[in-house]
Write a structure and sequence with these properties.
The complex is a heterotrimer of chains A (338), B (277) and C (329). Chain A is α/β, with parallel strands linked by helices and 338 residues long. Chain A contains 12 helices and 12 strands. Chain A has a domain of 230 residues: Rossmann fold. Chain B has a domain of 175 residues: MetI-like (MetI-like fold), CATH 1.10.3720. In chain B, helix 1 packs across helix 2, helix 1 crosses helix 10 and helix 8 runs antiparallel to helix 10. Chain B starts with 5 loop residues before the first helix and ends with a helix. In chain C, the strands form 2 sheets. Chain C has an 8-stranded mixed β-sheet, with helices on both faces. Chain C is globular. The chains are: A alpha/beta (338), B mainly alpha (277), C alpha/beta (329). Chains in contact: A-B, A-C. The interface between A and C is large, with 44 and 49 residues.
Amino acid sequence: MSDLLLEIKDVTKVFRRGGLLFGTELLAVDHVNLSLDKNKPSILSIVGESGSGKTTLAKIILKLHEPTSGDVLLEGKSVFGPHPDLDTLAYYRTVQPIFQNPFETFSLRKYVDSYLYDTALNLKIAKDRKEARDIIADALSSVGLDINAVAGKYPNQFSGGELQRISVARGLIPRPKLIVADEPVSMIDASLRMNIVNMFLSLKEKYNVSFIYITHDLSTAYYVSDYVAIMYRGNVIEYGKSDRILTNPIHPYTELLLDSVPTGGKKWERALPDIELKEHQNTACKFANRCPFVQAVCRVNKPPLVQIPGEREVLCFKPVDYELGRTTLSQEPEKVTT
Amino acid sequence: MIKLNGRLKAGGILLLLFIIVGVILPRFSPYDPRSWNAVPRNLQPSLAHLLGTTSLGQDTFWLLTFAVQNSLFIGVVVAFFATTIGVLAGLIGGFVGGPIDRGLTLLMDVFISVPSLPILILVASLLHGKTSLLTISLVLIVFNWPWPARQVRSIALSMREREFINTARFSGASTLSIIVREIFPYVLTWSLANFVNTVLVAIATESGLAVIGLSSVEQATLGTMIYWGLQYQALLAHRWWWIGTPVIAIILLFIALFLASTGFADFSAERRGRQRA
Amino acid sequence: MLRLRDVKAYYQTPRAVVKAVDGVTLDVRENEILGIAGESGCGKSTLLRAMYDSLEPPLKIVAGKIEAEMKNDRGKTVTLAPGEIRKHWWRFISYIPQGSMSALNPVVRIEKQFFDAISRKHHLTNRREIHERIASYLRELELPVEVLNSYPHQLSGGMRQRVLVALGTFLHPQIVLADEPTTALDVVIQKGILLMLAQVQEQMKNSLVIVSHDIGVHYQITHRIAIMYNGKIVEIGPTETVFNNPLHPYTQMLIQSIPHVGDQKHREGISGRPPSLTDPPPGCRFAARCPFVMDICREEMPSLLEVEPDHFVACYLHREPLQARKGVG
C-alpha cells in the first residue's frame, strides 16, 4: 500500500490548437511531479498566474482532462493507466471539486439542493431521500448553513460566498479524502475571502480531508497552506513548506509574486515591472526574459531541479551558482536583502 | 392569477378560433369535402352558405373547416416528429461528440443543403399527383429535422464546457441524466419555438405544393383550396369568397402562431425573472 | 473639481426601487487619487457612473447636486451639471470600465477604436498626426506600439486593460474614473496596471477615482479613501490616516479581513450580509453587523462628522467633531 494519498507523476499536457496541418501546440503542463502524504491531512497550494498551467493541472487531477504523458496515482492506484484501477464511483468518493465561479457551479434552472441529493444518492452515501436529508443537513451545518435556508431555492437567491459554501458542503457529502479547489475565492470580495479560507482549515481538522488549493493570490495561500508549489508556464519552479517559501523565497519569480500582492503592510516601489509581451521568445528557462538575475546559461540550458534540505525544491540555476550539473544543496541559501 | 401579456392573449384567442374551426366544427359539417356538386355552384355568401359556394359545388365555409383541419394536421404532425428527431439528434451529437456527432452532422448538412422544394416536386411528380397527405408529411419531416437539430447541437456543445456539468458528474450523474436534467431545460424553450416555426414551414410548403397542383388535390387543405380556385379562375370571375378565404385563413393562422410563440417567449422569460429573490 | 452634495441615485423599476446611492456627499479634489472601497453591491459602481454622468433609465439621480469644475480651452473655469458633463467625455472626464473584453469592440482594431473615440468629438482630422500622438503616448506608457494593429482578442487581459487605461488618459482629462480596473487580473499584472495609473496621475496632476473592493489596492496607491456601505459613505479621509486609525467599525473589519503576507495572525472575514438596498432600515445601515451597536444606532442615521483634520466618519462612537459643523469629505 502506498504511503501517498496523491501522486502526480511526471504529468505533461500539450494542447493542439488549430487543424492537423497548421495547428500550434501549447505546452500547458510540463513534467510536473507533486505528491500528498496519506497519513496527515494537508493543504497544498498551487500558486501561479494565468497561463501557468495550474488550472489545467487541477482539471487533470479531477479527471476532466487527460494528460499527454505521465500519470496520477490516487492511493497508489493509477487513474490514467492503460487499465485504470479506479472505477468512477470510487473516484468520486475520494476526490471532489470546488470550482471558481459559484454562479456557474450550479445550473440556474435547478434547485441548488438537487445537486446535494444527487451526490448523496448516486454515490451511495444514503439509501433514500430521508437519510440523504440528514446527511445533507449535517454537511450544510459544517459550512455554517442551515438546510431550511437552502432547500427549494435557485442559485440566484444566494450570494457568491453562500454558493461556495454550498459547493463545499456538496463536496463533503461522500467524505472525500481530497478536495481540489480551483480558485475558490477569486470571485468573492476580498473582505469575505477569509471566511471561506478559514473554513478549509477547520474542515481539514474536523474531517481529515486534504485540500489542493489553486490560486493566484499568495496572501490567502500563505495563510492556509502547509505546502506551496509555485507554477510558471507549466513548470513547478518552487516547492516547499509555505512558511519557508514565503519568508525565504529562492526563485526570482516567487519574489516577484510576493512583491506584487497589495497588502496593507508595505508600500510598493514606484517602478514599472516588465510587461509580458517581451517574454515570447524561446529560451531554455522560461522566465529568463523577465528575470533580474538571468545569465547566459539560463537561456541555453534548462534549469536544474535543485533539492534543498527541508523538503524544498527549486527549478533554477541561481541557487547552484549557475553551474551545470549540480542538483543538490547542503542547506537553504541565506535570504539576500536587496 | 397568472398575468398573460397582450401578445399571448391575442395569439391565444386566434389559435383557439382556428382550433374550433379546424377540430370541432368539421364534425358538424353537413357536407363531405370531397364530394362535388353537393350544392349549387358559385353562389355568393348568404345565410345558407356563409362563405358562398365554389365552382365545384362545395360549401366554402364547411370546406374551410376541413381545410384548416388537414393543414393543421400536417403542420402539427410534421413539427412534432421533426422537432423530436431533431432535438434528440442535436442533444446526442452535441453532448456525446466523437464519431456519432460527425455522422449526425453529416446527415444534417446533407438535408439542409439539398433544397427541399425540387425534391418534393420530384417526388410528387413521380407519384403523378396521387400523393397522400401522409407521403407529403413524411418528406417534410425528413427535410425539416436538421434545423432544430443544428440549433440544439450548438447549444449542447456550448453547454458541455459549463462548470455545472462537471458538478453533475461529480454528483455521480450518468451521461443520460446529464442530458435530460441539465441540458434539456435550456433547450426546451428553443424547442418550443422551433416547433411553432416548423408548423408554419410545413403548412407553407404544403400550400405551396398544392398551389402548383402537386399536393393531394382531392383532399381539402388550405393550399388545395387555392389551387382549385386558381384552376377555375376565381379571381378573374370575382369569386373572392372562394379564393380569398384560404388566403386570409393562412395569413391569420401564421399571425396567430407568431403572436402565440413570441408572447409565450416573453411570458416564460418574465416568469423566470420573477423567481429571483 | 467634482462636488457631490447629498446625491441620491435610484433604480426605479415597477417591482421595487433600488436605492443604490442614498445620500452621498463628497468632493473629488485636484491632483489626488481618491479610492472608493466597499463590498459588492454597496453602490460604488453606481456612484462612479453618476459622477461620469452616464446614468440611463431606470437609473436616475433623484435628489442632490453634482457639480464639475472644468477648465475650458481658454483657461476659464466653467461649472457643469449632469447633462453637460457628458458633452465633455474623454477630454475633461473619462471612464475606465471593468471587464475589458466587453468594453472594446471585438471586431475593430485597437487603433481604430482610439480614432473613433477621439476624432469624432474633437475635430482632429489629420490621421497621421493622430497616429503619431497615440504611438508616442503608448511609448510613454511603455506599451508596445504593435497593440495598435491588433484586435482585442489577440491581447491578454492585462494588456487590454492597459489599452483601456491609455484610451482613458490619452487626451489628458482632468478627471479619470476607474471602476475595478484590476479585478480578475493576476497580482503581477494588477500591480503593473495600478502603478501605471499612479504614474499617469503623477505626471498629469489630475484627479483619479478608483473603485475597488480590495482594500489592499487602496492602501497601495490612493491618497484619500472613502468607505462606502449600503449606498452611503461611512468614512473618508487620507489613506494612511484611515489605515492607521480606522474609526468606523466597518472600516476596521475591512482592514482586518485581508491577510498580510508574512504574518500568521488569525484573521476573520466579515460575517453577515448588508441590508437590502430596496428596503434599508432606519438608522445606521451597519447596525445589524456592528459589534459596538447601541440603541441610537438603530433609530437614527449618523451623519458624517470631521473627527480629525480631514478625517470624517459617520458613527455614533465618534461624536466629538473637530468643529461643530456637518462635514464634507
